[in-house]
Amino acid sequence: MFISEKEIEIRYAETDQMGVVYHANYIIWLEIGRTKLIEDIGFTYAGMEKDGYLSPVMDISIQYKAALRYGQKAFVRTWVEEHGRLRTKYGYEIIHEDGTIAATAMSEHIVVKKESFRPISIQKVNPEWHKKYEEIKKQVPDGVRN
Q1: Is 16 among the catalytic positions?
Q2: pLDDT digits (tens, 9 = 90+) for 125-140
Q3: Residue 32 resides in a domain
Q4: How many of the other CB atoms lie within 10 Å of CB of 70?
Q5: Which residue in the list 16, 40, 98, 142 is annotated as catalytic?
Q6: Domains contained in the chain, number
């Protein structure tokens, strides 16, 4: 399993009145992490869009564990949790500099044609991208289900 990592410097504007990172900013950080993972394996989301495809979010969940604050650094770790014919699930950990987990998350995406929004397999859109996801996705031992 390949894990991408992206450092985030927490800005004052990302915090709430209590000085804690506002919860919606984590979703932005997930997108930053997912984009970094895609770049790390040799592709770009912008390239997918240029080719006429989008990858909308179908589901997202975040579990908040330990607050992050202005002036700290956060690290977004991203991996391919599952990859199937039409759906890809990404896993995330957002951690403090000392390794404490601030949040865990999961997002599920599909690929669609830009003009019609009809789902299409990433294998048809970009066979190499599909092959790379199959190679780096989380491996589940035989007999064990997620």
Answers
A1: yes
A2: 999 999 999 999 987 6
A3: yes
A4: 14
A5: 16
A6: 1
